[in-house]
Amino acid sequence: MEFIEKYFLWFMIYSILGWIYETLICSAEQQKFINRGFLNGPYCPIYGCGAIIDIIFLENIRNYIILFLAGMFLTCSLEYFTSWGMEKMFHARWWDYSDRKLNINGRVCLLGGVVFGTFSVILIKFLHLITSWFTYKISEPVLLILSLILFISILVDAVYTVARFAKFEKKLKKLTNGMDNAIQTANQYKKVILYKISESEIYEKASAAYISILGKINSQERRMSTRYNDALQKIKEAIKRKN
Length: 243
Fold this sequence. Notes:
Layout: H1 2-30, H2 45-58, H3 64-90, E1 103-104, E2 108-109, H4 110-136, H5 140-192, H6 199-202, H7 204-214, H8 219-224, H9 229-242
Antiparallel strand pairs: 1-2
Helix pairs in contact: 1-2, 1-4, 1-5, 2-3, 2-4, 3-4, 5-7, 7-9
């Protein structure tokens, strides 16, 4: 039992470190705080899974080059099938590398593979030595309590997140339909009385629909709205022209 608890604690530690890495990178790119990840809490489980897979399969590899290539293959495979699985389940993407060179269906790319291969080397040769030393110092009762608390936390988070998806699809469909109808109506008006309507008036209805529906979507759901990015972007551009 202690074996399972240690692996779970390692999973959580690397999930949190992955969230910190992703959040720092994305926040720096956007120049504002970006909460990365599928769940609400400060963890990215895909990093935890990748780390555990590396530990199980690569821990005894001594050659740095082989370790790098094997880590690159394993983590990219995990990333690809995670992206594919989540898109099939939730009809949304959490990352897209289509604009990167040497990508596969936008799910993985060469640069990401190099980064994750490097992380695998750092993990096996350095980081996990510290992590395992630390966790082996924790007494079994404390380890059990800590693992239980973390497990309940991430389980509740996961259940809540999946439950939100039940209503999320309806919200996004309503948003998309509302914006489409507003634009169609505005364009019809423009054809009839073109000389009386300015660009700002044409998109007034689109702006109202966008603001009304988007205001009902919480912060987590906005991070899920990748599926409708094209529609949202078109309306945002239209509203900018209004202003």
